[in-house]
Amino acid sequence: MHMKIFIQNMVSLRCKMLVKSELEKLGIAYKTVNLGEVELVEPLSISNSQILKTALHKSGLEVMDDEKAMMIEKIINIIVEMVHYSDELPKVNFSTFLQEKMKLDYHKMAEIFSKTKGVTIEHFIILHKIERIKELITYDQLNLTEISYKMNYSSLAHLSRQFKQVTGFTPTFFRNLSKRDRTNLEDL
To answer: What is the CATH number of the domain that holds 140?
Structure first.
């Protein structure tokens, strides 16, 4: 059984290294260490949990209580579900959508989320939307206008701008790149 712990203020590579070294010092087995989040191989004992909290606290990192950790996990799941697995994105503002789903104040959630993950909820959604757009471009079943409509962009220009900001490529360049890669694979 895996267990996740969420850590606030963990926003750099240095923080990741620090957390890894503390876990290793304590002999705590982990699967992954990402910004704001650690996946352990098994649940922590109460004593190890306290020791870890104290050690990380000295470096300005805070292990979050279960309630906040569960809230972040839920927000991530809602975003992933919405962006990657639903046929249609909600027509309402995401903040409204999230507030209704979570029954919590959006600003409070947003503050805790960005302190923990190191990015705002909005930016986290954009990163996931761009990943989804890359998948849709690679599947090659929809044209870019259809993709922008499906992903709830006001226009293809808006999608293109955001795509280029995140990836450094235009969607068209990315499509040609992924087609070329596929063609090369078929030649093998």
So the answer is: 1.10.10.60
86-105: per-residue pLDDT in tens? 776 666 688 888 998 899 99
Examine the domain organization and report whether 58 and 74 are in the same domain.
no
**Mean pLDDT of all residues in 161-179:** 91
What is the span of the domain harbouring residue 34? 3-63
**33 near 23, Cβ under 8 Å?**
yes
Same domain, 32 and 125: no
Among residues 180, 79, 138, the alpha carbon closest in space to that of 147 is found at 138
Residue appearing with tokens 């960005």? 114
CA distance 33 to 157: 36
Number of domains in the chain: 2
In this structure, the answer to whether residues 79 and 51 fall within a common structural domain is no
Task: Look at the alpha carbons of 164, 173, 132, 160 in this order and tell me if their dihedral is positive or negative.
Answer: positive
d(CA 188, CA 185): 5
Whether residues 33 and 49 fall in one domain: yes
Q: CA Rg, the chain, in Å? A: 20
Residue whose token pair is 């050690």: 55
Condensed to tens digits (0 to 9), the pLDDT of residues 113-163 reads 998 888 899 999 999 999 999 999 998 889 999 999 889 898 999 999 999
CA distance 153 to 161: 11
The arrangement of strands across the sheet holding 37-40 comes to 30-34, 37-40, 3-8, 62-63
